[in-house]
Amino acid sequence: NRFNYVWLNSVQFEGAPDWYASEWFGTFSYTLETWPWIFHLEHGWIAAGSDDAQAVGAWWYDLELGWLWSSSRAYSWVFQAREQSWLWYFEGSVDPRYFYDTKSESWLEVD
Fold first, then answer.
1. Structure pTM?
2. For 48-97, what is each residue's pLDDT tens digit?
């Protein structure tokens, strides 16, 4: 399906038809009714964007941070388009999430 292509060959959880996993991006849920909005276990509600031609990276829209890009090779590093800056996501941080901003050389706390 289209979602698997955009999100790098994610696989559906057995017995949980709306839940998917990506080796590098983690666990998320969506339905045809919510697409392109998906619920990611760490990032919350995000809008799925596009990936590159080789399907190794993807864009998504974060309600607090705007458009972000990363790839299987770069993640936990995330490129923030709005600030033209690389952020390092402290994986596992949830509510709030923590990102180190290389441009400002400071930590961001994102709810």
1. 0.86
2. 877 555 556 788 999 999 999 998 899 999 999 999 999 999 999 999 99
The Cα 100–Cα 54 span in angstroms is 28
* pLDDT tens-digit readout, 93-110: 999 999 999 999 999 999
Neighbouring residues of 32: CB distance < 8 A, sequence distance ≥ 6: none
The distance between the two most distant Cα atoms of the chain, rounded to a whole number of Å, is: 44
